[in-house]
Write a structure and sequence with these properties.
The complex is a heterodimer. Chain A has a single domain, classed as ABC transporter involved in vitamin B12 uptake, BtuC. In chain A, 76% of the residues lie in helices and 3% in strands. Chain A contains eleven helices and two strands. In chain A, helix 1 runs antiparallel to helix 10, helix 2 runs parallel beside helix 4 and helix 10 packs antiparallel against helix 11. Chain A is globular. Chain B has one domain: ABC transporter involved in vitamin B12 uptake, BtuC (Orthogonal Bundle), CATH 1.10.3470. Helix content of chain B is 73%, strand content 1%. Chain B is globular, with a radius of gyration of 19 Å. The chains are: A mainly alpha, B mainly alpha. At the A-B interface, helix 4, helix 9 and helix 11 of A face helix 6, helix 11 and helix 14 of B.
Chain lengths: 305, 318
């Protein structure tokens, strides 16, 4: 039972991480109609910058802040230099150009920090375990990630539904031409939204640094899971991104943890040893196929098109 | 009626046919290997061009069928079955089946959904390849013997294998040409330009698109069978998502929806990669980080060179 609870928390932790990535990607798609494969690169940039600033300054908080600011700056530069001209192009061009950006960023990081994974750590006050209740001791840092993610989700909800910027974002998602016609500086709005999404991706990257490996290409592994999240949730919908992220995080984590022992009660243990991991890694994709069969537009289709 | 694009295609194929004697004359067997690789990818890119160029389906998962074809050959060889007819037949059949399964879900969607779904399913197959230890898992496995075609061809002979690949390339270009200009091809092209009107004149695009998707998958599966015989090595990297991106780039770089485009694109991309990695004129810092420059070139091509190489060489037809 304790093990199940712990895995549920792990699933939640992966879920909020996926949400941080998916929120930015789905906003950029909903508003600018841009497929940005390089979103994973921003995740990687966030992880590298935060790790580097933490080592340089010796302060984790400062590392996080500078890492976030740095990723935001990189995001804005990418938007202005390369992506801005792609908004009017078809999806094929966007996919190829941002694919080129991925190659560029992975290699640039390899030039600056080398191809091997770099060591990323958490400060002492975030290490150790907390006893949530009798018998369940959970790593403090993972708990911090879950709380940060939930706080960001709440903050995002507030910004999108309660502020002027959020109103513009929602308006832009449902009818871009009309927003521009009403005199809103749509170019600036695009840059702001893109920078915002980049910072969220950077946040996901720097939080995940101490848990997963910080290395070139780290962004692509999570990016494809994020695509699954967005397809399940419905493209362009933040609510859908949250629901999809939590579902995918949970299914993936629980599948990896429990599919093998469950299979071994049905088939022979040695067969389960092979089939378990293989099936666990396929689970979220099968889930996506199932969702699409019944709801081709995802769970929360966005109203704009 | 032979137009400039057809002449371009004939010229390219004649050049490719001239590679083995030239390589033998200059004692540079490396080029035989390089251009055989180019032609194998040209087959894969030609199949992608059928759905991407003519059908308007932006499949970001075409490398899946390279992988399925390669695994079909590799797995049979692993269990001691080295009959080429059986191996290649399975490669084509298995790829068609996988394409049918992926297509049944993805072809119903369009635009960004289609891109993400094809990518995600390919990634699923990639992870499946990694997690099956029996067939080498992450590391892949060596192909102990190449496919055997007793009495027909010996593909252990580099030149014979080269001309076999050239033959298959010519056949796949011809097949796509016939398909595209048939009634079937007219329907998928019509559905690309205007789905609503296509429906209005009484066609349901779904089955036509799905059929094109399966045909393209099967052709690419054959390219996978060729690729594993070419490298004599099987690895899940065949279906890595970057491979799908490269195939798409070959189609765009060469000229989308043209017969010569995929061949030109495959040649241009693979030669470019080869030059960036090993051309002695370029300094070492280019060789070490060639992907950086490839990435920049890719972005620039997409931003500024829309017509592709076929458009550059032969102008605009039709």
């Amino acid at each position: 039972m304790i093990l199940v609870l712990e895995q549920i928390l792990n699933g939640l932790q992966l879920g909020v991480m996926l949400f941080l990535m998916a929120a930015g990607l789905t906003l950029v798609f909903g508003i600018m109609n841009l497929v940005n494969l390089a979103h994973g690169s921003l995740y990687m940039v966030g992880a590298y910058l935060a790790t580097w600033f933490y080592q340089a300054t010796g302060s984790f908080a400062l590392g996080v802040l500078l890492g976030l600011a740095g990723t935001l700056a990189v995001g804005v530069v990418v938007e202005v230099v390369a992506l801005r001209t792609l908004y009017q192009r078809d999806h094929l061009d966007q996919v190829l150009a941002t694919f080129g950006l991925i190659l560029f960023f992975n290699e640039l990081i390899a030039i600056l920090w080398g191809r091997a994974a770099i060591f990323s750590t958490v400060p002492e006050y975030l290490t150790g375990h907390v006893e949530l209740f009798a018998g369940l001791r959970y790593p403090l840092y993972r708990l911090v990630i879950i709380l940060t993610g939930l706080a960001v989700a709440a903050g995002l909800w507030f910004v999108v539904t309660r502020t002027r910027l959020g109103m513009l974002i929602r308006a832009g998602a449902s009818n871009r031409t009309m927003v521009a016609a009403l005199g809103v500086n749509i170019r600036l709005l695009y840059t702001v939204v893109f920078g915002f999404g980049a910072a969220l991706a950077g946040l996901a990257g720097l939080l995940s640094g101490p848990i997963y490996a910080v290395q070139p290409g780290m962004g692509e592994l999570i990016l494809i899971q994020v695509f699954v999240v967005i397809v399940i949730g419905g493209i362009g919908s933040i609510r859908g991104a949250l629901a999809g992220a939590l579902i995918v995080g949970m299914v993936d984590t629980l599948g990896r943890a429990f599919l093998k022992p469950m299979l071994s009660t049905v088939i022979s243990p040695s067969a389960a040893d092979t089939a378990g991991p293989a099936m666990a890694s396929m689970l979220i994709y099968l889930l996506m196929a199932a969702v699409l069969t019944f709801r081709p537009e995802g769970l929360f289709p966005s109203r704009g098109s | 009626m032979i137009n400039s694009r057809t002449w371009l295609l004939i010229a390219i194929l004649l050049l490719l046919a001239a590679v083995p004697p030239l390589a033998a004359f200059f004692a540079q067997p490396f080029y035989l290997d390089l251009f055989r690789r180019v032609m194998i990818f040209a087959v894969a890119a030609t199949s992608l061009n059928l759905i991407l160029g003519y059908g308007g389906m932006v499949s970001f998962g075409h490398a899946a069928y390279l992988g399925v074809g390669a695994y079909a050959v590799g797995v049979l060889a692993h269990h001691g079955i080295d009959n080429g007819w059986l191996q290649w037949g399975l490669a084509i059949g298995a790829s068609a089946l996988v394409a049918l399964a992926i297509g049944a879900v993805s072809v119903r969607t369009s635009g960004i959904y289609f891109i993400m779904i094809t990518l995600a399913f390919t990634q699923m197959l990639y992870y499946l390849g990694i997690s099956i230890e029996e067939y080498g898992g992450d590391d892949g496995m060596r192909l102990a013997t190449r496919s055997q075609f007793p009495g027909v061809a010996d593909i252990a002979d580099p030149v014979a294998f080269y001309y076999l690949v050239l033959g298959i390339l010519v056949f796949s270009i011809y097949l796509v040409h016939r398909l595209v200009n048939s009634r079937f091809g007219m329907v998928i092209q019509a559905a690309r330009s205007n789905e609503a009107r296509t429906r209005a004149i009484g066609f349901s695009p779904y089955l036509y698109r799905l059929a094109a998707f399966v045909i393209a998958g099967a052709m690419c599966g054959l390219a996978g069978a060729l690729l594993v015989n070419h490298t004599a090595y099987l690895t899940p990297e065949f279906m890595n998502w970057t491979r799908s991106g490269e195939l798409m780039f070959m189609v765009i770089l060469g000229g989308i929806a043209t017969a010569a485009g995929p061949v030109l694109g495959a040649a241009a991309l693979l030669l470019l990669e080869d030059l960036l990695q090993g051309w002695s004129v370029l300094p070492k810092w280019v060789h070490d980080h060639w992907q950086l420059y490839l990435g920049v070139i890719l972005v620039l091509v997409v931003l500024f060179a829309r017509r592709g190489l076929a458009g550059f060489f032969a102008g605009k037809n039709e």
